[in-house]
Amino acid sequence: MPEELEIIRDLLDKQLVDREETKMGRADGIVLALDGDGPPRIDRLELGFVVLARRMHPKVEKWFEALRRRWSVRKSARQMVPWSKVLDITPKHIQLDVNALETPAFDWERWLRDHIVTKIPGANGE
Amino acid sequence: MKKALTLALGILTSVGGFFDVGNIATCTQAGARFRFQLIWAMLLATIVVIFLVEMSGRFAAVTGKALPDAIREHFGFGFWLVPFVILTLIHILVIAAEIGGMSFALHLVTGLPLPLFALPSAILVWLFLWRSTFSAIENSTSFLGLITLCFVAAAVWLRPPIHEVLRGSLPSMPSGSAANYWYIAVSIVGAVIAPFLFYFFSSGAVEVGWDRSYIPVNRAVAVIGMGFGSVISIAAIIVAGAVLAPRGIRVDDFHQAALMLTQAFPHWGFALFAVSMGVACFGAAVEVALSTSYTFAQTFGWNWGEDLDPAEDARFTLVYTVSLFVGSLFVLVGFDPLKLTLLTMFISAAVLPFVAAPMLLLMNDRMLLRDASNGIISNIAAALIVVMTLVLAVVSIPLAVMGGS
After folding, report:
1. Domain limits at A77?
2. A54 at the B interface (CB within 8 A)?
3. N or C: where does chain A have the smaller number of CB atoms within 10 Å of the terminal CB?
4. Domain B2-402, second-level architecture
């Protein structure tokens, strides 16, 4: 873990991987917490299309929210990963202490796999 | 030995990205209208593409990251969003053009209507991607691509006047319509420097696991792989210049181009052209479809890799499936493959600065590349390339309007 980090250069938009180094999205948002008089601290990383949409425009965020409610494959629009789950930060990626397959980041992947991809012969490479 | 075999990546990139439907269109038009006079444009494009491919491979070897990945990470989502959307449209248009090329080849061989082959061609490409691993794709496509060497054989057999060919290697003022001359010159450069080439090559280098020790290999692969595509393209210009130009055949339709090999190979020239075109477009469709998936997966941080089974990266698989389907629709509804190709090339020439400029910046980021960042020669080349892409971007649209006929 490096001693100093620049939030934008070293954290934002960076590849996130789980314990097994499975790629599970990017750091689409970073949320700081201000409590009391102390310096701000990083509270959590956020992932998801809605988080990206919010970076563009609040309207776009609303559209994405509406779309998600219409086809709610994902349980929640934004996935929040508390900073305490960060295992390691390397030049290549940020490693999180989670199992990607169990997180909302894989909801779509899982849905597509179960409903479409594995229905087609040859999907498991046999 | 393993490193020597990686040459296949270069040849694959070249067969797919260099000599494809775009090049067949522009090279035959160049030869048919201006004989050997536009060879210089191909040489210029080759030098540019060698530099850019070398840089994207070196970047991947040192950082373990492909370009779309690095661009989002370093310039942020806001910067990447617009080029990403435009590139996705280009990807789909190029897929459409390549499927058009494959369908045209099948139409030539069978005589059946071209749109009939749109879906079968797309399904063929899709099946290949669905079942294969990256190295299988790499090796089989580069092996099949060797068929395009028949253009070189034809060019040698036709014994073109050497002094004229050499004179064409240097830029000169056009002998005919100036607007048309520059239009074809720009489309040659636009056809060769396709944006997806660099995204594909760097993603491929990550897939096959290049590391720093591959930097010299990468250089050789860039020169030999792109050189391969260039030699074939120049041969196509020469053949078209020697065969089509004297008969006053202007290539307004791929049917006219199909005759160019029959002088050198009377019996099977027609079939050779069809097979070469089919193989080149197939390779390109595979490459572009993969490139679309790479770009999506890396932009959003999904799990990606052609070596994974489709069940392991469902979203990656979905992207190429949908793009191939949408691309084939253009051909199915009857868009002319040649017009589709030319349109696509001009749009991609217009977005080249978005591809070249971030690359130049990344290649000079010493925090990322340390001692492997660009040297003085690469930087001069890259700066000139960025200026050139800006000029191309500005002139491409007006030229397309003025010189397109």
Report:
1. 7-119
2. no
3. C
4. Up-down Bundle (1.20)
Compute the mean pLDDT over every residue in chain B, rounded to the nearest whole number.
89
**Contact (Cβ atoms closer than 8 angstroms) between residue B331 and residue B103:** yes
User: CB burial class (10 A; 0-12, 13-18, 19+) of residue B35?
Assistant: buried
- Selecting from A52, A116, A123 the residue whose C-beta is nearest the C-beta of B77 gives A52
Q: Model confidence over A40-79: pLDDT tens digits?
A: 999 999 998 889 999 989 899 889 888 888 776 666 778 8
**Among B132, B93, B174, B54, which residue's Cα sits nearest to residue B346?**
B93
Place of tokens 């019996």: B267
Question: Chain B contact for A13, CB < 8 A?
Answer: yes
Residue B213 is given by DSSP the state G
Q: Tokens 């068929």 map to which residue?
A: B147
pLDDT digits (tens, 9 = 90+) for B79-138: 999 889 999 999 999 999 999 999 999 999 999 999 999 999 999 999 999 888 877 887
Q: A7-16, B140-149, B207-216 — which is least confidently predicted? A: B140-149
Q: Which chain B residues contact residue A122 at CB under 8 A?
A: 130-131, 310
Contacts of range B125-132, beta carbons closer than 8 Å, 24 or more positions apart:
B125/B99, B125/B282, B125/B285, B125/B286, B125/B289, B125/B324, B126/B289, B126/B320, B126/B321, B126/B324, B128/B286, B129/B286, B129/B289, B129/B290, B129/B306, B129/B320, B130/A120, B130/A122, B130/A123, B130/B310, B130/B317, B131/A122, B132/B306
Nearest-CA distance B201 → chain A (Å):
19
Round to whole Å and give the CA distance between B403 and B405.
6
Report yes or no on A46 lying in a domain: yes
How many independent structural domains does chain A possess? 1
On whether any CB of chain B is under 8 Å from the CB of A60, the answer is no
Q: Do B309 and A123 touch (CB under 8 A)?
A: yes
Distance between CA atoms of B73 and B203, rounded to whole angstroms? 15
**Domain edges within chain B:** 2-402
What confidence tens digit (pLDDT) does each residue in B193-237 have? 888 889 988 998 998 888 999 899 899 888 988 898 999 999 999
Segment B298-336, tens digit of pLDDT: 999 998 888 888 878 889 999 999 999 999 999 999 999
